[in-house]
Design brief:
Layout (H helix, E strand, L loop, with lengths): L28 H12 L11 H17 L6 E4 L6 H11 L4 E5 L6 H9 L6 E5 L6 H13 L1 E6 L6 E6 L4 E6 L7 H4 L4 E4 L5 H14 L3 E2 L1 H8 L6 H18 L3 E2 L1 H10 L9 H13 L7 H8 L3 H14 L3 E4 L2 E4 L1 H6 L25
Parallel strand pairs: 1-6, 1-7, 2-3, 3-6, 8-9
Antiparallel strand pairs: 4-5, 10-11
Helix pairs in contact: 4-5, 7-8, 7-9, 8-10, 9-10, 11-12, 12-13
Amino acid sequence: MNWDDDTDTAPGPAAAPLTADGRIVGASADGEDQAVEAALRPKSLGEFVGQERVREQLDLVLTAARARGATADHVLLSGAPGLGKTTLSMIIAAEMQAPIRITSGPAIQHAGDLAAILSSLHEGEVLFLDEIHRMSRPAEEMLYMAMEDFRVDVIVGKGPGATAIPLELPPFTLVGATTRAGLLPPPLRDRFGFTAHMEFYDPAELERVIHRSAQLLDLEIETAGAAEIAGRSRGTPRIANRLLRRVRDYAQVKADGVITREVAGAALRVYEVDDRGLDRLDRAVLQALLKLFGGGPVGLSTLAVAVGEERETVEEVAEPFLVREGLLARTPRGRVATPAAWAHLGLTPPQQTPGQAPGQLGRPGLFGV
């Protein structure tokens, strides 16, 4: 049911202009995608699929706040991209019947940027701060006081003549989202009244997400077709919805519009998504590691050059999923392919050399870390 989320602006495009005959003109693909994303987002905790423990805990927090007539405690949501952090922030605002302001950590590089946002908040408003760990340190320090005392000190002037002017803020709820909770300083993390870590979804939950999205998109999908898409969605609702839209395109063009297991499988082969959810980049990394470097260990920079990608792309996009699937291991000496990786690509691993650690199938240390 969810979510292409973690966006920095509220979903939903402006209405496109109409010609005299009623045709829409000037509507971009991005605008269409935003409209679809907005339509697929759950609007309440009851509609939100998965994350049962987080939903139960959050429901208690919000229900108690409404009963007291108070603003909800600050909320920190952590977890991988695409699990619904932005969606939950919007649900928090809806449940509290409050407006929401959306921004991101990288957009706040100076304390003044944060002061401008905070000073314009209304009482009870929800401020969603995505990628909060990427906020600048001066803004972070200002946020401490704002969260705890609902006050900020604005510095006017420079040098010995500088003056701190206290600015009172109305009570508000900060919802912070991060993919790297370990990068948050403890003083900031401790000021959140409720913290939640969002887990990857199992295939059964993703099937429910896909069935709900298909219903909203007015698609006919069989249970086996939904299961086929769910099994290749990497435990992430955002990916499940993206794959569903691509399978929809294939079904409309190449089939009769009905998404069956066969149609879903054929569509995902066209888009180079295999039966475990690996895409082109994932397979390129594994093939380079196995065929060029004998299974490793090999350094990340060398591996990135071999697949023609930036080091950060391999490390942040491909590696987390490959490690989670047990296809790749990170070691102090470099990246190493596991026996499951050889089996997945249908290759035979080389013989292990004497004195070599188990699981290190290449020539030890040849390519560095």
